[in-house]
Every structure is written in C-alpha cells, then in structure tokens.
Design goal:
The chain is α+β, with helices and mostly antiparallel strands. It contains four helices and 18 strands. Helices cover 20% and strands 35% of the residues. An eight-stranded antiparallel β-sheet has the order 3-10-5-8-16-13-18-11, covered by helices on one side. The N and C termini lie far apart (180 Å). About 15% of the residues have low confidence. Keywords: Signal.
Length: 325
C-alpha cells in the first residue's frame, strides 16, 4: 500500500514536470530577418545621435571673384595758352549766367542767392569801387557794406527796389586806405537772386569830385526833407550826399506818382567827407520825384547835389508838327 502511494506521487510529479516543459518549450522559433536587424541598428544609431550634442555648423564665406581690371592708356593733353583762355572764359560765363552792362561797359557779374553773402577785397592802390546790382525783373533787397578791417563797417547802404531790371542800383563807394572790402548781402528770399558787379577804380579824381566842382549843393538840416522833380526827358539822375566831417545818415526815395515808391536807399557813413555817397538812379517814364530825407539829428546837416545824368534828346524827322522822343 505504501509502495503504491509512493508510485502514485512520483507519477504525478513526473506528469506535472512534463506539462511544464511542454508549456515552456515553443513549438516554433521565429528568428529576426536581416532587414529587421538593419532597422533596429539604424534606430539605435538615430537614438544615439539624438542623445549626443550636435556641434554648430561653420558658415562658409562665398568668395566672389572681382571682374578683371581693364587698363586704358591715354596720352596727357598738352595745355596751351589758348586752352587756358577758353577755360577761363567758360568759367566766367558759368559763374555770371547773365550779361550785365554798367555805365562804363560790360563787367563780370556774380550771382548772389537769397539770404547769402558775397565779398570782394581790394588792394591799397584802389581808391574807389563801382558797385552795380540788378535782377531779372524781380524785386531786389540788398545791403552793401564797406569793410575797413575786422568788424568795422564805416559805410552801409540798404537798397529796396521794386524791379531790379528796370531800375538797377549803381553807386560809387570811396575806399581810402588799405584793408578795404565790399560785402554784398542779399536780404531777400531764396527765390529772389540778384547779380552783382564790382569794378575797382584807381583814378585819383572821380565823379564825386567832378559833380562837386560843377554845381552847388543844397544843405539839408537834420530831420528835413528835400524833393526834386524830374522832367520826362531825363532818363537817369546822378545824386551825391556828403557832410563836412560829421556822420551821414539819410534816406533816398524815388517816387513815380503820389506816394508810389519805386526805389528806396538808406545810407549811413561814419565820415561823410572822406566817404561820401554817389549814386545814379534810373527814372524811366514820366512823373518821377527824388526825395531826400536827412535821418540824422539837427546838429548833423548834409549837402545834397542832384543833376541829370542822361537826357533823351528828341530827334526831328523834318516834317512840321512831328517829333520823335
């Protein structure tokens, strides 16, 4: 009986072990293919690459080749005296931009734009200067200053003209001594340029001495007014103001019609004997009146001399009752 029980227990154990072995042993073993092995290796490599830090890529500079340099050999032109003269004339023509004619002939003109300043210096041999200003038909507002050393303007003239082409400004400024210069300042707007001409004169005697010897003057007390009507046949009038050593301060007005001012000049001079004021005024048409106002005090009188400069002489054509003017 005991033997039977032992055999039965051993049989049961052997049976259970067989079932477990049969259960644990696969019936069919599946081996991975070569493609599957490659895919796993690639995935492992990608995972390893992601975990590692990637270095920064270096930027490569693109080199652009420059175009070939073509050398040209030219001969240096020979500059002759004729070429230099032509170049100077061209520069003067470009600088002038207009033909300006004064009382003594043609002079080189310099264009002065609005709100700008141009100056011209002289040597000791120059005794006086002829200043001529005009425009192309527009109003003209300028200030002419005589400089004698640094920051010393002994004479100034302010000009206000309605039409700088019909009534240009022409005056003579005395320049005694050395270190003299004339400055022309355009006080008008940027749209109102003007053309300035300055001619240096070295003669010992000028128009100021001639008019002073030829005619007597009229004394105008301080604050007084002196008016001179102009005939219709007078085209231009010459006018000179001076003192006997005192300062000169006056205003000159050119009127055409009642209170119709065509030209105004404000004159100031520290010494009216050494630096008098001489001007030639255009009076086209009829009905002109020259008005001189002494703006100085009572103790500073001035002497005014007014005389026709150009007179239109009528020409008869031979027929009775007819004449040209």
């Amino acid at each position: 009986m005991k033997l039977y029980v032992k055999l039965l227990v051993l049989f049961s154990i052997h049976r259970n072990v067989g079932e477990v072995s049969a259960f644990m042993t696969p019936s069919k073993i599946v081996r991975p293919s070569p493609l599957t092995r490659l895919g796993v290796a690639e995935m492992n490599r990608v995972r390893k690459t992601k975990t590692e830090s990637r270095p920064f890529r270096e930027r490569k500079e693109i080199e652009i080749l420059a175009p070939p340099i073509i050398e040209t050999i030219t001969e240096t032109p020979v500059i002759t005296k004729t070429a230099i003269d032509i170049k100077k004339k061209t520069q003067v023509r470009e600088q002038t931009q207009t033909e300006t004619k004064s009382r003594t002939g043609f002079m080189a003109a310099v264009k002065v734009h609005g709100t700008s300043l141009r100056s011209c210096s002289f040597g000791e041999s120059v005794t006086r200067a002829h200043v001529f200003l005009k425009t192309d038909g527009r109003p003209m507002k300028a200030r002419v200053e005589l400089w004698h050393g640094p920051e010393n303007p002994p004479q100034t003239v302010s000009v206000d003209v309605e039409d700088g082409s019909i009534r240009p400004f022409s005056c003579i400024i005395e320049t005694p001594g050395d270190s003299n210069a004339i400055a022309i300042r355009n006080v008008g707007g940027i749209e109102l340029p003007l053309y300035a001409c300055i001619e240096a004169l070295v003669e010992k005697t000028g128009p100021i001495e001639e008019i002073g010897q030829r005619m007597r003057g009229r004394i105008v007390q301080g604050g007084a007014v002196y008016s001179v009507p102009c005939p219709a046949n007078v085209a231009t009038v010459q006018l000179m103001l001076h003192t006997h050593g005192g300062p000169l301060s006056a205003r000159i007005e050119v009127l055409q019609g009642p209170n119709n001012s065509k030209q105004t000049m404000n004159v100031f001079s520290e010494e009216g004997l050494d630096r008098p004021f001489f001007v030639v005024v255009d009076t086209p048409g009829s009905g002109h009146l020259i008005r001189i106002v002494n703006t100085a005090n009572m103790e500073y009188p001035l002497t005014a001399r007014v005389d026709p400069y150009v007179v239109d002489v009528p020409v008869a054509n031979g027929d009775p009752g007819m004449k040209w003017s």
